[in-house]
Amino acid sequence: MRDITARSVKLNRDLDKMLLQALERDLLVRIGWGKQGDEKPKNGEIGVITHLPEKSRVLLLGDLGECAGAMNDGGTFTLQGSCSSMLGAFQKSGRITIEKDAGDRVGQKMLGGEIIVQGSVGHETGAEMNGGFVIVRGHAGSATGASMSGGTVIILGNTGNDPGIGMTGGRVIISGSCPPPGDGATMREITSNELEEFANHLEPLGLYIDSDALVIVPSDEQSKEAEPPETSVSEGFEGITLVPSARDRLPTHSQIDTSFAIHPAGQDENPLEMPMPWIISSENMIGNAGTYTMNQPALVTSKPRPNDLVLVTEENLLEAVRIIHQCSGMVLDLTKMPAINDAEIEALLVSLYSRMADNSLVFLKDSISRVEHLFRLVVDLDLDGAIVDLASAGGSRAAAALPRIGLVSQAMNLPNQGRKILLQMHEPPSAEDLLITIGAGCSAIVAPSPDDSEAALNSIDGTLRGWMLELGINNLKELTRRNLRAQNHDTAAISGLRLIGYDRPLPMWLKN
Description:
Layout: H1 3-25, E1 29-31, E2 42-43, E3 57-63, E4 73-80, E5 93-98, E6 114-117, E7 133-136, E8 149-155, E9 169-174, E10 185-189, H2 192-202, E11 214-218, E12 231-235, E13 240-242, E14 260-262, E15 272-274, E16 278-281, H3 291-295, E17 298-300, E18 309-312, H4 317-320, E19 329-333, H5 342-353, E20 361-367, H6 371-380, E21 385-389, E22 392-393, E23 396-397, H7 398-411, E24 420-424, H8 431-439, E25 444-447, H9 453-471, E26 484-486, H10 489-495
Helix pairs in contact: 1-5, 8-9
C-alpha cells in the first residue's frame, strides 16, 4: 500500500470514530491541528471526508487530492485549503466549502446540496449533475455544466470554452466573461426573479451576481445523445473440450476436491472459500436456501452475506458504504462508472476500503476490450485481482479472450504476485466451463444462476466430480492448459489451443 493510500485510509477510519462521538454531542470535528492548537495540515490525502452522514460537521486544514467530500450524504465539510478533481462528486445532500481552488469536475454527478468554492475551479464543473447548487467565486475552465440534467452552477468569474455542452437540463450562470455556449446549449439574459432566487444563496456568503450576467440553458435543438453499443458474448467455450494429461482415470471412490480459494494478494490467510469455482452474480442471495447455495459465494449489490462480494456501481455508490463491512470484499465495476482517470479510481477505492477490514478483497471489473488497462491498474493500485467481462460490442467469442488474458497476465506477472483473474459470463456456466476456466489459468467464473440455484449447483457438483475422475485429477489446481483442446480449426485459430488429435500447440498460445 502506498504511503498516501495508507494515510488516507487512516484518516477516514479515524474520522468515522470521531464522528460517532461528535454526532452524539453535536460537535464540530477539527482535523489539521494538534492538541495545543498548532497547525498540522493534511497534504494530498485522497478519497477522504466522504460519505458524511446527516448533521455531521468537519473542518479540515490542508490540501487534499481527488474525491474530497465525495458521496456527501448530508454533512457539512469545510476545507481550509485546496483540492484536486471530483470535489463533492455524487453528493446527495449537505454542504461543502473550499476556501481555495479546486480541480476538474467539481460536483460531478451530484444530486443535491451545495458546493461553494472560494477560489477557481478546473474543467467540467458540474459535469452530469442532476441537482443542487455549485457556486464558484473565481474562474472556471472549459465545458462548465457539461451534460448536466438539473441543478444550478454559478460562476462569478470568467469561464472557458463550450459552457453547457451537451446539457439537457439545469442552468449555468456566468457573471464574468463567457464564450459562446457549447453544442446543445443556448444563452439568454438573467431575469429579475433569478437574481432574487440566487441572492438567497449568495448574500449569506457576502457575494452577489451582476444584473448583466448570462444564463446558459438547454437549447431547443439539443445535440444527439451518444448511444453506447450493446455488448454480448456470442459464443462461450463450446469449441473447447477437456482431455486427460497422460494420467489414468481415477477410481470412483477417490477423494475429489472441487473447491477453490481466493486469498488476498500476498497473504496465505483469510481466503474466500468457494466449494466450486463459481461466484453467483445476483442482486442478493436472500431467500435462497440449501447447503450448496449457502456456502457458494455471490457477487451482489445489496444485503451481502459474510462470504459474498459487493459489486459497486454508480447506482449504489452512496449506499455501498453501509454494507461493505458485512462481506468478504468488493468489486468496483468500471463499466458502470462515469469516465474517470486512474487517480480518481484509486480515490474511490480508498473511500470504500476505509470502511472495510484490512483482509477484505478488492477487485476491479472491466471489459475484455480494456484488459491491459485493467490489469495495469490492479498491479499499480496493489489490488487482489480483476474480473474480466467477456462481453464486447458486436458479440465476443469467449475462446478468443483466453490467449489475450493469459499474455497480458504473464506480461504483468499477476500469477506470481498472487493476484486472481475471474471471468464474467452472462449465462449460467456448465461444469465444463468451470474446468476450462481453471485450466486457462483463471480462478473462477462470475455468472448468474438458474432460478433454482440449489439444484443447479448440485448438478454441476456431480458433473465436476465425474470429469475430474476422467481427467485423473484429485483437485482443480492440477488442471493446466495441457488439459484443453480446440474441437475445430476455427476455435484453435482464435484461442491458440492445440487442436484435438494434435500434439503441437499453435504458436499464438503461451509456452507451456
